[in-house]
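Re: that chain you flagged

S.,

Sorry for the slow reply, it's been a week of failed gels. I finally had a moment to sit down with the sequence you sent. For the record, here it is as I used it:
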Amino acid sequence: MIEAKNLTKIYGRFIATENVSFHIGKGEVACFLGPNGAGKSTTMKMLTGFLAPTSGSALIAGYDMCRERIDGARRLGYLPENGPLYPDMTPESLLKFFAELRRVPPKERRNRINDVVELCELQSVFRRPLGRLSRGYRQRVGMAQALLHDPDVVILDEPTAGLDPNQIQHVRDAIKRIGQTKTILLSTHILQEVRAVASRVVFISDGRIVFDGSVDQFGKTTDDFDQKFKELTSKRVERYLPVKKATE
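Prediction finished late last night. Pasting the structure tokens below so you have them in one place:
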């Protein structure tokens, strides 16, 4: 359902990602793990078609996100880090707006809105302005709009960043519920997130995939996770292309 094939992104001389390859099967919940600046968000943007790779390809449900982005987007729900919301709108008006943008059939819109409001537990704030909601509730509204068109694949970039412990638990619970019927790729640098929501770990460091396996293979305890994280990030690699010498 999600496939990265040798995804490489270069800015000038800086190598943001290099030959990133992995695939996530139907019904899997996978954590895309790595330190800050490792290339997680860049990879996410290429997978979702928001950023064109320098080389390589990204496929969602079999659709190439460079050549068939519209078809792929119909199967994809994406929540970027700090996803933009309109502060003067309510969850109700925002979801109605996105239902129209996503071309959800008019007869299905009310049921789809009710479904995502229940899934993300937004009943108590449904008609309150987004600008007055906590960050945790805004994240849940963002997740609701990403799920509104009933996608097969959901990609979440740092969905619990900046939340307090109670808000984190609410978002994790929502992810678990979504994962019962969807394929999910969740970007994070928080180790506790991994065992809480996922069964698979894809680890990126310095723009390269350095681990791809089950959560149990990554570690069984918090100490194991810490040790593995340190081990996978201990060897730094060069991320700049060599300077070309001027020819005489």
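What I noticed first: The beta strands are 2-11, 14-24, 29-33, 55-60, 63-64, 76-79, 153-157, 183-188, 200-205, 208-214.

Talk soon,
D.
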